[in-house]
Amino acid sequence: MTWTTYPLAPDDGSGSATMEDMTKYSDIEEFTQGPKIRSDFIHSNEKSDHPAPVFSSLFKLTPCLKVKRAGAAAEPAELIRRAHEFKSQGAQCYKDKKFREAIGKYHRALLELKGLLLPAGERERDSRAASLAGAPKIGCLSEEQSKTVEAIEVDCYNSLAACLLQAELVNYERVKEYCLKVLKKEGENFKALYRSGVAFYHLGDYDKALYYLKEARTRQPTDTNVIRYIQLTEMKLSRCSQREKEAM
Predict the structure, then answer these.
(1) Where are the TPR repeats (predicted)?
(2) Which long-range contacts link 170-178 to residues 24+ away (Cβ below 8 Å)?
(3) Are residues 62 and 166 in the same domain?
């Protein structure tokens, strides 16, 4: 297999997907939503409209689901600690070029934070439900904890995009999705701007590609990869314009 190396590595935070199955899903919600098991793989550009057959080895998913149930009863500080640990493990996997394992680790980190990332109202309802069920009640996040949770979330989505860009067949739609999640939180994040531009370029949306690449260039004007993609994008736009003129 030939790997395409991109210059921007994931943000370092400091089993593997014993849950390798988790890497088959496009997002945390998709992994935890219920009995329908999708046949999507991260390196595929196509989605299946049909649920895959129930695995005979479905027990592989059990550790993940147990983590989710246990996580609902854990205190925020413990959830944040575990998320940070998984994020750090993901960064190490990336350095070791174990990209599928890294993806599993970053998904685990996000899974730990899932309840904490809910809007305050939903979190309070979940907390009351947990209390009625006899589980410990999740307290409100402090300002410092909220900043830490958001930083871990941003790092994980940025790093997931970096991992996907290492695949032989890159799912640029998913790269775009992850980068836009980052930009919702940090609109000036250079890595997310650059990778968004790359994703839109390969998806054929050259106007948006140029927008994000130019935004990235304002943050790092001398970055050679940004400059190269801007040149490629402008060439594509020029050709498209020329074809439109010839067609008139």
Answers:
(1) 190-223
(2) 170/4, 170/43, 170/202, 171/42, 171/43, 171/44, 171/45, 172/45, 172/198, 172/199, 172/202, 172/203, 173/45, 173/199, 173/203, 174/26, 174/42, 175/199, 176/200, 176/203, 177/27
(3) yes
Same-domain pairing of 6 and 126:
yes
CA atoms of 240 and 34, how far apart (whole Å): 44
Same domain? 145 vs 200: no
CA dihedral 83, 87, 90, 94 (to 10 degrees): 170
Query: Is the pLDDT confidence value at 157 over 60?
Result: yes
pLDDT digits 0-9 by tens, 63-122: 443 444 443 457 899 999 999 999 999 999 999 999 999 999 999 999 999 878 765 555
**134 Rama sector, left if φ>0, alpha if ψ -120 to 50, beta otherwise:** left
Q: How far apart are CA 122 and CA 173, in angstroms?
A: 29
> How far apart are the C-alpha atoms of 46 and 60, rounded to whole Å?
25
Are residue 115 and residue 232 in the same domain, yes or no? no
Q: What is the CATH number of the domain that holds 231?
A: 1.25.40.10
| Residue 116 structural domain | 1-171
For residue 124, give every residue at least 6 positions away whose Cβ sits within 8 Å of its Cβ, in sequence order, or none: none
Is 248 found in the same domain as 127? no
